[in-house]
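Q: For a teaching handout, I want to show students what a protein-ligand complex looks like in token form. Below are the inputs, and the small molecule is zinc ion. Please produce the holo structure.
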Amino acid sequence: MRAAALALLFTWPLAAAPAKPNLLLITLDTTRADRLGCYGDERAKTPTLDALAARGALFAQAHAHVPLTLPSHATILTGRLPPSLKLRVNGVALNASVPTLATHLAARGYATRAVVGAVILDREFGLSRGFDVYDDRIRGDERRADAVTAVALDVAKDLEPLYFLWVHYYDPHFPYVAAKSYDGEIAFMDSAIAELLRGLRARGLLDQTLIVVAGDHGESLSRHGEKQHGVFLYEETMHVPLIMSWPEHIRAGSKVNALCGLADVASTILDLLGEGALPESDGMSLRPLLDGKKLPSRALYIESYHGAYTYGWAPMRGVMDDRWKYIDAPRPELYMWRISEDTNLVSERRDALRVARGELQRFPAQSSQPPRVSAEAQKRLMSLGYLSASGMMQASALDPKDVIGIEDDLVRAKEARDVRSGMRILKDVLARNPGNIPAWSMLGIAYMTTGDYDAARSCFERETRLRPEMSGSHVNLGTAWKKLGKNDRAMEEYRTALVLSPREADAAVILARMYRDRGASADARRALETTLATGDDTADVEFELGLLDLEAQNWDGARAAFTKAMVLDPSRDDASVNLGKIAWKLGRADEAIAAYSRASRIAPRNAAYLATLGSLYLNGKNDLRQALELYQQALRADPNGAEAANLRELIARLEAQTKKY
Ligand SMILES: [Zn+2]
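A: Here is the structure, written as tokens, with zinc ion included.
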């Protein structure tokens, strides 16, 4: 035995192949290349990214193909362009059959883990496929860079080579949560990346590791009239950082000036790792550029359907090469992009325009909406008359250049001091741009607050017709119908919302309540279980389940449900009160007192809780003094309430009795 072990020990090093490198992919959301020190911004506070670039290679002219988070990340992870993925806007899931860096490397024995900083990359959109661990547990919409780093280091706690770790930082995306300004957020993110690298290095996880840093798109910062990003295809949002570092394999301080795109990232990574290639790719390996060689010059495809999809504007598509950028729009644009995107050369340079238009033909335009919903959901929408065919796009004549200010109008409407002036702005927007989905939604919500439910219903109907597959608009429409007293129609909309998105917990809860009111408790339970089946759970869902169990006198079930509601949301005094009622029913006075005490701690001014607690001490414990004290507190909390007279009487009686002792 011993000899065998020794033999193994001696032969092992000889048999071992050279260690394969790990892959650390860091993506920087909304980070403009020209706001990093290594890209020439002297005021930038980005020492970590600058040092990575100094130790490795900086791609000076890397470009996104689409200025939107999810499609751009999908391109980074698959090497494929939005048209070939049919993933062109946020909120669409990646087709489950598309291989990704994660599925490819997982199949080759890599431990694969990911941490993302925003719900826009939630696992439901499919980028999680191939990752053993995909941490998207985010409260609210985003998490700060320091939290992302902390989670990443936690996720890497038991990590061993060979691994692929992807970490996504969202901070530079508006709003600026951690720092006060755009540049401040970038600096904050840089320091969090420093922390990440320190932590990984301390665990020996950065030896033999290819580090790739890529931006998903930039930020307009009001250039060309665009505040953020998503609609236009100018350099502010398309030029992104791309840095690769792997000491002894990538020459320190390399600078690649050739034009390249994020679709090239996956091919380049796999080439450097020596791990083959993805079966289909729209990009190419940039490795020859790192070796000082040249690549054939080519045109990069760029597009955005965000304006088309959200506002009903014309889509923007284009191509760019080393010299020209062509953008196809109602008013086409041609720029010498390295020099200026203020001078449109469309009429002066017919030759270049012709070539660019020929190039663009290679990439299919989108004629129909991407299938965002399941076949079941599509069938339902068809049966309700929402989808005539399969969501044909309405050709729009609105050139985004002419109407980009509408994005500001929507912000002004949202921030308007009073509802009426907000509504005026929205009506003005809709007169010019009747396909603007957020405007219909916001106007509907405004009408709801003014109590004009029929006008609200009409707005939500317009919204629903424009985007029938969006569950939220059905919830809104359902709520308007409910306010109008049309419960059948309301329930129809809530049911549709649930078919479209079983995670629409609010719809499930309202629907369950409406079923319960009709005595249809089995249907109510089914609605709630639809949501639970997705793995999501909310305090509201559990509370409703608890009420159904109470009705059925299933005390154990009700107790379990209300307890879960308390765990999910410790501020739910109503759940605690129901636990108290059940305990009292079961003759457990101490438990009832504990539950009511908890409710009372959550809502200390609630007179009813204090009064009930008093009665529990009186009837359950025969504790007259405690009961008296609690009745007095209850009276002080609500001296003019409906129970005040009763309380005074009880207090007087108890005072008389306690004096006897
Ligand atoms: Zn993004």
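A: Two things your students might notice: Residues 1-16 have pLDDT under 50 and may be disordered. The pocket of zinc ion is lined by residues 29-30, 69, 173, 216-217 (CB under 6 Å).
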